Amino acid sequence: MKVALLVNGAVREVDVEPRKTLLDTLREDLSLTGAHAGCEHGVCGACTVLVDGAPVRSCLMFAVQADGLDITTIEGLASAPGELSVLQDSFCETHGLQCGFCTPGMILASHALLEANPAPTRADIAEAISGNICRCTGYGQIVEAVELAAERLRLANAPRAAAGGRP
Amino acid sequence: MSAEAARFRFVSANRRVREDRRFVAGHGRYVADIALEGMLHVAILGAQHPAARILSIDPSAALAMPGVHYVLTGEELAGATDQLMNGLDTPNVRRFPLALGQTRYAGEWVAAVVADTRALAEDACEKVKVSYERLPYLTQAEEALDPSSPPVHPAHGSNVLLDKQFVWGEVDRHFAESPRQLSFRVTWGRNSTVPIETFGVVASWDPWSEMLDVWASIQMPKYPDQIARALRIPANNVRVHHDVDVGGSYGVKRGIKHTVLAAHLARRLGRPVRLLEDRLENMRGGDAHGPERIFDVDVAFDDAGIVRSMKMRALDNAGAYAGRAPFQLGKPIGAIVGPYKIESVAYRAQSVTTNKAVQEAVRGFGQSPTNYAIETALDKVGLACGLDRIEVRRRNFIRKEEFPYLIPSGTRYDSGDYHTVVDKVLAHVDYPALVAERDRLRAEGMLAGIGIAACLEPSGGNSAFEPLLNEKNETTTWMESVRINVDGTGCVAVTIHTTSSGQGHETLAATVVAEVLEIDPDLIRIVRPDSLACLPSNTPVGSRMAIMMGGACFHAAQKLKAKLLRIGAHRLGLAPEAARYQGGSVGAVSGGQALDWAALVNIAHRNFHLLPPDTEPGLESTHVMQVPTGTSLPKDGRVQMYPCHSFEFHLVLVALDPVLGKPEIRRYVIGHDCGTVINPHIVKGMTLGGIAHGLGAALLEEFVYDEEGQMLTQSFMDYLLPSSHEMPKVEIVHHCTPSPFTVFGQKGSGESGYLGAPAAISGALNDAVAEFGISFDKLPIRISAISDAVAAARVRSSEETTS
Ligand code: FES
Ligand code: FES
């Protein structure tokens, strides 16, 4: 079946079997390998992508269901090759990862949180990433990364005076 | 940081982990991301029954499907390959990637189907017809000790793989002389490290160059050698690519059976072949389970709570084949007394086969279960003597001034200051306030308990347990290597010879080389040559890389620095003693003219006429490092196991509703001493991740088999990994006791947290339910077990009061 997906801002047409998951389609047909298969039954969150801005498990969705929807993968977060988003950079700053396998999903889930809630509490963050399993980190430095990114984004968006700059 | 850290520029500094950039961008390169031209895909047919004879396999319906290329059976594979090694002297416990004639556990691989896509291969699996004749089976370790139990390997004659008794010191006398003794049993449930990435391998065979190329999510010593041996090809016909990111391992990513199978298929079919486990294949048949162990412990002590002697029997359920299970009983011998001055120990290590999946190396290699048993003993001794559980530990701790300290089983602990770490943690938490908080919770009707664990992380791993358990094995070498090359433009490349699974080895190597050469770490490129271009390596097992790769980097950089110094001194007309190296330049000790990095590099690469006599041109150095202290074979059942011993002290407050039984960790503090820290972010991450893993082992995770020998927890819906909801905020209290055996005083930290968390959490729950006169003696302690036990105890006590 022919499907048109809006992936990271560009329309991508693919011809897929109806039973093919969005995850496999992104990875195999579009070479977007940042989304990972950890369980393929909807528990681990390694396959998370954003669909119309909301985190979705791409292993539980068929590509044909995503026809016409707006999909953001980890590859779509940085502004240019070699660049990182504030959130991605914050994960580097606090070392919110080890093996990196859960990381794209973690970052996208956190990205969606920060879009909706610029000042999340620790509990908000824990809730937002609770559907993403990380076996490496014990989550501590991931929570710190999201806290740091929220703070940086708030500062970046605040008027000069409030951000501590000169009047 | 401690005063020690001030000696360093980059070591111990708060610097980023260089690997992180590619991962946060989604540009890791995992095995599933490798797609070769013409690549075929494999799906595995698993056995239905825990034990059965394979009467026939009919692949015809599967082969008739378009896009299906091949169905491989155990018979073909066993004919074309040699059996997988197990390291024990048990020649009749034979293991091949696919079951040969008989299946020995439910989920064991029976056939492999190859097709154009993975989905097609899975479809075709369903069409392969296997007829079985069911055989008697067993799942319990104690049953396996019974000589009349159905043998998993009839040719081996029994289910006992290993039964070895060690006696270190005068155990009988110490028991006879001790006024008090106690005995107990605890059980460690079968769990594993369960990385989020399953195991995967891509194999490609070039028949003209006779070269097997392998990409795998591997963490395994001697991997290329074992592939070659099984395939009966020279080892230099195997090229393992190390530039593959591994999505978590913590010990288990040792897919040798997967690799042999995929490699055979690649050769047979003349096309690249990929075998990527799905979650079900991984959990049931990936042969990556961990220890499942019963401990029977007796301790002899006095009224002051001083433990003099211990008898421990550890009975491990290895599963259907030997795997690494027996050796995971051996490694804990190197820290069999924990941080305590127990004078003598009797240890019986028993490993038996049953009809369950096979074990692989799991974080700590058997140490965490052993620590759980030792810490339970200390809790019980404290209770018996009416002593505070921290006090009883303090009384038994080895004292700072007693290091290096020789334990009865032959290992000399390098260094430690256990009392100070405990003092720091107690001061940090305000211990009386923590106790008051527990009591306040209790007064509110909650169950609340404090848990304590003090334990060691032996690190700098080697394989000394192999000769200890198998006299035919005489391996004492367990090296790690590094090469540094400075090119003609002055840029530095360092090669490391392993894959990584999140441990930050690139950061480690760059930090250490930069520290020695006094140059910016960010200017150093780290490369991972394939196995044919590698120097000898034993991969990151046994918490060894800070010590071993760090050590090899240090020595290689020292050699390079010495060469730069010689070149500079010669050019300046100085005696080598009169010259000094500083920040990449060489000049006279007395000051004056100096040659900078560019000038030195130029001489090395372009001015042979300016080199000192007998100097090789170029700027390159290598170092192959042996494990410090790894110098001799075992003698009289004693051996120096690992060189270094990190210490961790856990203090946990747990609260739960007595009816619901769901434990909530209110406070988690760990005192951690792993000597000099090379990168604080990495050590912190290891520790927090280890605690989460230990929390899983304590409360959630278990591969459960039912009476029929079927595994019940084969998805993430049944096998529960801790999420951000279960993990508390952890407070880390640092201490640094440098190791005298390593270049910077560093020790290992790759298993930290995991080694004490299960014991601490179990201790907290036992403290919480002590008022009912009950305790838990088996991990994991599930919510249902807690609420059922509490409810039963309440019924009992209300019956007592009414009767
Ligand atoms: S792979 Fe989709 S949730 Fe695990
Ligand atoms: S970083 Fe390895 S699973 Fe999260």
Radius of gyration of chain B: 28 Å
Please identify the structural class of chain A as seen in this structure: alpha+beta
What percent strand of chain A? 5-15%
Shape of chain B: globular
Strand pairing plus helix content of chain B: what structural class? alpha+beta
Beta content of chain B comes to 15-25%
Rg of Cα set of chain A: 17 Å
Q: Shape of chain A, please?
A: globular
GO molecular function, one term (chain A): metal ion binding
InterPro entries (chain A): 2Fe-2S-bd, 2Fe-2S-bd_dom_sf, 2Fe-2S_ferredoxin-like_sf, 2Fe-2S_ferredoxin-type, 2Fe2S_fd_BS, Beta-grasp_dom_sf, Diverse_Oxidoreductases
Domain 2Fe-2S ferredoxin-type (chain A): 1-77
Protein name (chain A): (2Fe-2S)-binding protein
3D architecture notes:
The complex is a heterodimer of chains A (167) and B (803). Chain A has helices at 22-29, 86-94, 103-116, 122-128, 140-157, and strands spanning 2-7, 10-15, 48-51, 54-57, 70-72. With 167 residues, chain A is of the alpha+beta class. Chain A has 2 domains: 2-76, Roll (Ubiquitin-like (UB roll)); 86-159, [2Fe-2S]-binding domain (DNA polymerase, domain 1). Chain A has a 5-stranded mixed beta sheet, with helices on both faces. In chain A, a hairpin with a 2-residue loop joins β3 (48-51) and β4 (54-57). In chain A, α2 packs across α5 (140-157). The longest helix of chain A is centred in the C-terminal third of the chain and has 18 residues, at 140-157. With 803 residues, chain B is of the alpha+beta class. Chain B has 3 domains: 2-27 and 479-625, Aldehyde oxidase/xanthine dehydrogenase, molybdopterin binding domain (Aldehyde Oxidoreductase, domain 4, 2-Layer Sandwich); 34-135 and 196-248 and 254-285, Aldehyde Oxidoreductase, domain 3 (Alpha-Beta Complex); 368-375 and 387-464 and 640-797, Aldehyde oxidase/xanthine dehydrogenase, molybdopterin binding domain (Aldehyde Oxidoreductase, domain 4, 2-Layer Sandwich), CATH 3.30.365. In chain B, the strands form 7 sheets. Chain B has a 7-stranded mixed beta sheet with strand order 3-5-1-12-9-10-11. A 6-stranded mixed beta sheet of chain B has the order 7-15-14-13-8-29, sandwiched between helices. Chain B is globular, with a radius of gyration of 28 Å. The interface between A and B is large, with 59 and 59 residues. Residues 37-40, 42-47, 57, 59 of chain A line the site of one FE2/S2 (inorganic) cluster (FES).
